[in-house]
Amino acid sequence: MSDDDPFNLPNLAQIIDTYMHRILDSGEDPVDVLLKLMGALIEPPLFEHLWCVGKLYANFGLLSDIVDAYPVDYGPNAETIAVRKIRDAARDWLGTPRTAEGVEHYLQRWDAKLEALPAIYGGRTVRGKPGHPTDLPPTNA
């Protein structure tokens, strides 16, 4: 991929940076901004051109899912937890080197952080919502 290719990593980082700055600096609802970022990531042909877009989308989706109480219910503090973690992810992204290795390390860090969230915040895995293909057993019934 050349630097002139609009689907290279520096250009992707620039797109994501815009949203991450909005999360941190604009006063907008961080969850709404993250959802808009996710929409931008799946716009063709961006999603098909870079190896990391699908994983970034998935991680951002898990962050936005905190407020939906699915697949993990964090109780009455879910929105506060979501906003805190989304802002943490934004700050971390903005400090990440714009290299394949930097993005890979960002993804690895957030995989681990997202996996640890239920234990840290007392989240409880919930059964699938009606009509949803996932039917998970509760982790702390």
Could you name the key traits of this structure?
141 residues, mainly alpha, two-stranded antiparallel ribbon, disordered C terminus
Characterise this structure.
Helices cover 60% and strands 3% of the residues. By secondary structure, the protein is mainly alpha-helical. A two-stranded antiparallel ribbon has the order 1-2.
Separation, N- and C-terminal Cα atoms: 50 Å
Q: Largest sheet, if any?
A: 2 strands, antiparallel
Radius of gyration: 16 Å
The count of DSSP E runs of length 2 or more, i.e. the number of strands, is 2
Query: How does the helix and strand content classify structurally?
Result: mainly alpha
How much of the sequence is in beta strands?
under 5%
SSE blueprint:
Layout: H1 9-25, H2 30-41, H3 46-49, H4 53-65, E1 72-73, H5 78-94, H6 100-121, E2 124-125
Antiparallel strand pairs: 1-2
Helix pairs in contact: 1-2, 1-5, 2-4, 4-6, 5-6
Quick structural summary:
By secondary structure, this protein is mainly alpha-helical.
